[in-house]
Amino acid sequence: MANQELTFGEDEFIVSKTDLKGKITYGNALFIKMSGYTEHELMHKPHNILRHEEMPAVVFKLLWSRIQTGKEIFAYVKNKTKNGDYYWVFAHVTPSFDAGRQISNYHSVRRKPTQKALDAIKPLYAALLQKEKSGGIAASEAALNQILKDKGMSYDEFILSL
Q1: How does pLDDT run across 148-159, given as a tens digit for each residue?
Q2: Can you list the alpha helix ranges (DSSP code H) found in the chain?
């Protein structure tokens, strides 16, 4: 039965690496298990194979703009499994650098989000998704920026306060 929420332990971590184009180059056992795919099915596939349709694109726009400039980001992400189930993660995504300080790949460690954080994120993402459907990613981004301005917080301050 698809569309069931999956969870994992508070002491467990989902880890993956991608190349510069977002294709999966590594996934730990929990990453593979939670995805519902085999390791072979995941390797060298775009990481967005796990993208849930209820995730606002503005979150990924922010994520990619941040990591491509060499900065880390924290984000709450709803992932979709092979059979249509889903699971929430609190992701810490970082670029990795080679000896010449060029970005060589991206690394993500995900942990189980708190219920308190999800209680704040779910309605926010639903609102951003609505804005996106009616006005595109620019409308979603404007809405997110307004929410942050109203809270008097940066994106990072908001996410880390949850």
Answers
A1: 999 999 999 999
A2: 29-35, 39-42, 57-68, 115-151, 155-161
